[in-house]
Amino acid sequence: MAAPENDPDKVYKLSPEHMEESIELYLDPVIQELRRIAGIYRAAHDQARAAHVEETPGWFGGEGNGHVKPAISSFLNEVTFQVSELVGDQDELVASLQNYRDMLQAHINQAVQNDLAHADQFIAIHRELDEKRFW
Amino acid sequence: MDLPPGCDPIPVDGIDPETNPRMAKAAGELNAWIEYLLRPETHDGPRVYRPLRSPHPSEKDTEVASRTVPDAPHEDPREYETLSVLEDFASDPGRFFRPAQAVSGINTLTIEPVYLKLVDGYLTWIREGAPVMPEGEANDTDKPQQRPAALMKYRDVTVTRINWVGMRKSWVAREDVWAHAYEGDLLDYQMRTENCLYAVAEHVIRYRAILHRAGEDILALTEALTRLCPRPAPTVESTFNLMSVVVTGIVAVATSVITGGSTGVTAAVLFASAVEMVGEAVKTTERTTTKELVLENTYHLRDAAKQYLNGVEQIEREVADALVDLTDSLRRRLDQIREARQYSRYNESQLTDKVPFYDDYRRA
Question: How far B162 CA lies from chain A's nearest CA (Å)?
């Protein structure tokens, strides 16, 4: 059970500086890496697709008695389809993480705004007290 | 390998010496023998004498290593017809090379760029200088509804989960609870997606292994037939036999796309993996998937040639069958991993296969 000051149902706390630094250190590099591999997977898909469509020598052998080439074509077709699906998944994973980062940033911005608003409030109260004392 | 007198190897179309030097050499030599043996009228070498007056002429064929003396009875055109020892194949000598052509031209250098892209990953890779999760702890989240972890061959070895918990340390809010659940699901999903891509790469290794093994077997038979071409074939060439593996068996042989080493983890090189896999297949497969390649030193070369053609044409058909099985295997393996990739969101019991998005956890 969380102590009252750490109970998320009763308290909202966030250190903008800590969170911002941590995001730069621990989240941004992951997003960057996942975006990089999404690009790599897309390139793999494009190359496999071209090999299938163009029957690229190196992936395909010769005509032979006609048994092997259609089987290679089916295999490459399946590889292309599956990698295409996985590229879509990887793109979504990157988008999801970017969306998560944006949400965290929004909380940081809100916390900063709240701190500023609180500070303004304190200043206003302070001024008001000063003015009352003066009179 | 001995060549016919005064002959050079004759290159065979579709078998490129750049990509398949050994096969090109063996095929060139066999082609030279076939060309030579099909034209007994141009030399004094091997030939068949067929009696013209026999009721079943071909049954009385006499195969000789060289022309007999000019006045011998076999040289009398009224009594005997002189034929090639490969007469039965004269109408289509290309048949000897079609299976080799079907599996030749496969080039690791063409395939490898795709393979290497499929084995790039993030969570499953140890990067230089990056902290690594101790082996015993490398795991996906331990949730009750989790599929058996053993299904995931390549594990999350990074400390990303721990880092992200630290990132949210200063945050006390309901959203933080949702964020924790989201992060766990997202990282599991990412790890399993990387496993899917590795599964594709493993099938590319199998693809290369199937065609490599078939090429090696056809090469062995081609060289064996060439050794039988000088007639009579040397007695040391009694019967050629070689234990091999039926290439359809390679579809089920285990392989790995990542190798561990003292410096961390690297993608195993495609060709080396394929060769290693074939070696493993020969060692470990059941008797039902091994076979013996045989070529007998028969009295008539045409009988050995028929045995050769049966052998290489069977290999070609087996390659096609193996590739069909391989395609099915890829589909099945990815279905398995995708099933294991399903998860239930925080506070939900229903499984989903969609990529986790934080907003769905907030609504839950």
Answer: 10
